[in-house]
Amino acid sequence: MPLSGSEPVSTLKAPPKKALQAFQVGQVGRDTVADYLRKGWSLAICCKACERLVEWTPPELARRFGDGSQVRVSALVERLACAGDEGCGAREIAVFPHLFDGKWPRDA
Fold first, then answer.
1. Residue 5 falls within a domain, yes or no?
2. DSSP string, 83-105
3. Overall domain count for the chain
4. Residue 94 lies in a domain
5. What is the pTM of this model?
6. Is residue 13 a part of any domain in this protein?
7. Looking at the domain assignment, is residue 106 inside a domain?
8. 84 Cβ contact list (under 8 Å, min separation 6)
9. What is the percent of the chain with per-residue pLDDT over 90, rounded to a whole number?
10. Which of 44, 37, 82 is nearest to 63 (CA)?
11. Mind listing the pLDDT tens digit for each residue in 74-100?
């Protein structure tokens, strides 16, 4: 994901192919978007078919879901697809947390 000039370059890397293919939604646990915001985590979204990797940073998660969102990350997985101009259209998506490389209110 291209970052705006105000965000640092991300250190996010795709997981090994074997780990990516073994991902199951149950591995996400009970974390919510609010948990990710509180911990300063980005949501890494990786297509299992083409290995496209997208990062939803805490500011992006807050914009999409609100600061207090109780939406479970596992519920998001079911709604995600590798879409858009760069996507392959696959619906098999893996997600994982990534410590945000920028400042987030928890750092203030």
1. no
2. -STT------EEEEEEE-SS--G
3. 1
4. yes
5. 0.86
6. no
7. no
8. none
9. 76
10. 37
11. 999 999 999 988 899 999 999 999 999
* Joined tokens for residue 9: 């370059």
- C-alpha angle with apex 63: 19 to 27, nearest 5 degrees? 25
- CA nearest to 100, candidates 59, 53, 52: 59
Angle at 90 between CA 73 and CA 82, to 5 degrees: 60
- pLDDT greater than 90 at residue 9: no
What pLDDT is attached to residue 6?
62
Tokens of 100: 């945000």
Q: Sort residue 73 into left (φ over 0), alpha (ψ -120 to 50) or beta.
A: alpha
Contact 105, 68 (CB under 8 A): no
Q: Decide if 15 contacts 52 (C-beta within 8 A).
A: no
User: Phi then psi for 92, rounded to 5 degrees?
Assistant: -90, 105
**How many Cβ atoms from other residues are within 10 Å of residue 101's Cβ?**
17
Range of the domain at 64: 29-98
